[in-house]
TrEMBL record:
InterPro entries: Aminotransferase_I/II_large, Class-II_PLP-Dep_Aminotrans, PyrdxlP-dep_Trfase, PyrdxlP-dep_Trfase_major, PyrdxlP-dep_Trfase_small. Pfam families: Aminotran_1_2 (PF00155). It is an enzyme of class 4 (lyase). Its cofactor is pyridoxal 5'-phosphate. Residues 66-387 form the Aminotransferase class I/classII large domain. It comes from the Bacteria. Gene3D superfamilies: Aspartate Aminotransferase, domain 1, Type I PLP-dependent aspartate aminotransferase-like (Major domain). This is cysteine-S-conjugate beta-lyase.
Length: 397
């Protein structure tokens, strides 16, 4: 399908469905009448093969206690091999209700109170919250923004922060939310070698791994340098971003190191007593094995690319000093309005004048990013046109 056909087939008006993004705006904005481009889920129905698989199972089976289905495990392993050239062993796979919960369980399993945890900022704010809620200090290492608005790492600064704060865990985001960067193998090799040198455990959040439409291919942390760091890495992912099913509470947690895996599962057993989520497993199996789902994903990326290119071209024509980061991965645009809007005016202009609910930059690392917004492009081109035109109308050169 072309983008217009995909949107006509799968776009859905989510108002009134208890959607957090659409109906839960009051949780962040104290109002409900904004065009929501904040929460990172989509305004598209998942592939029909997934819908059918769930319906077929529910009609044929009671929703009683179940065990993990081997077909689900095989589907995950095949997807990683086929899509990402990453070879997994079945024994490496465990789970969490979602990636953030998995990260929180790792923090509980592998650190103690006051142990430091490092991140590269700007970064998804839930990383900070997970650490602070557990009384672990977060060590924010700012990335460098280059002239082309891409982000890079000062490795000496990263290592100095690791040493100074005796960091125990590094939470890696690949692809990176919110800046849209897809990490190269060389970049990760340099990061991971520092972590290895100083005994730092690596948690790699790879939830956006399938949402890559730029020139750089996705590389899993597990495959860097032919798996040289895999024994010190825990990766996590979920179909929630790829196929818009965040309400199915299931994430893959992949731990090659048997001792780390046992430690994680022991911690998990103290707080989580349940069997497998049969609906999630059915959905994942369909997503990872059905050709229709893979085509849906390809078509979705074309929609996101069209939305990104439209927004960029229109905004930069009207506001040429904007700084927009290349979106090589994710469906999230990261834009700095600092040339036109003061930090203290951002909320008023976007909410009260533009009528848009964005993710504001300070949510990803504090005041340093107060003139930024993250905008969710996984919606209709019509919505993107409305948002873009409103920004052009209310933000002046």
């Amino acid at each position: 399908m072309n983008p217009a056909e995909f949107t006509s087939t799968y776009y859905i008006d989510r108002r009134g469905s208890h959607s957090r993004k659409w109906d839960g705006q009051h949780l962040k904005f104290n109002r409900t009448d904004l065009l929501p481009l904040w929460v990172a889920d989509m305004d598209f129905m998942p592939p029909r093969c997934i819908q059918d698989a769930i319906c077929t199972y529910v009609k044929a089976h009671p929703l009683g206690y179940t065990m993990t289905n081997p077909n689900y495990l095989e589907a995950v392993i095949d997807w990683y091999k086929r899509r990402h050239n990453c070879i997994l062993s079945k024994d490496w796979l465990t789970s969490a209700p979602n990636v953030i919960t998995g990260i929180m369980w790792c923090i509980a399993a592998f650190t103690k109170t006051n142990d430091a945890i490092a991140v590269l900022t700007p970064v998804y704010g839930a990383f900070d919250a997970s650490a602070s809620d557990a009384k672990r200090p977060i060590i924010a290492v700012p990335m460098n923004r280059n002239e082309d608005n891409r982000y890079s790492i000062d490795y000496s600064t990263f290592e100095a922060a690791i040493v100074k704060h005796d960091v125990k865990v590094f939470i890696h985001c690949n692809p990176h939310n919110p800046v849209g960067h897809v990490w190269t193998e060389d970049e990760m090799d340099q990061l991971f070698s520092i972590c290895k040198r100083h005994g730092v455990l690596i948690i790699s959040d790879e939830i956006h791994q399938d949402l890559v439409a730029g020139p750089l291919p996705f590389t899993s942390a597990l495959t860097v340098s032919n798996g040289a760091y895999a024994n010190n890495i825990i990766t996590m992912s979920s179909l929630s971003k790829s196929f818009n099913m965040a309400s199915l509470h299931h994430a893959e947690v992949i731990i090659p190191n048997e001792d780390l895996r046992r430690q994680y599962n022991t911690c998990k057993s103290l707080v989580y007593h349940t069997d497998s989520d049969v609906i999630a497993e059915i959905a994942i199996t369909a997503a990872y094995t059905h050709p229709e789902a893979e085509m849906w994903l390809t078509d979705l990326l074309a929609v996101v690319k069209e939305n990104y290119e439209y927004m960029c071209s229109q905004l930069l024509h009207a506001l040429p000093e904007l700084r927009i980061s290349p979106m090589d991965g994710t469906y999230l645009a990261w834009i700095d309005f600092g040339a036109y809007v003061k930090a203290e005016d951002m909320h008023n202009i976007f909410e009260n004048q533009c009528g848009i609910a964005p993710s504001f930059g300070e949510w990803f690392g504090g005041k340093s990013y107060a003139t930024f917004v993250r905008l969710n492009l996984a919606t209709s081109l019509e919505n993107i046109k409305i948002a873009t035109n409103s920004m052009i109308q209310h933000i002046h050169p």
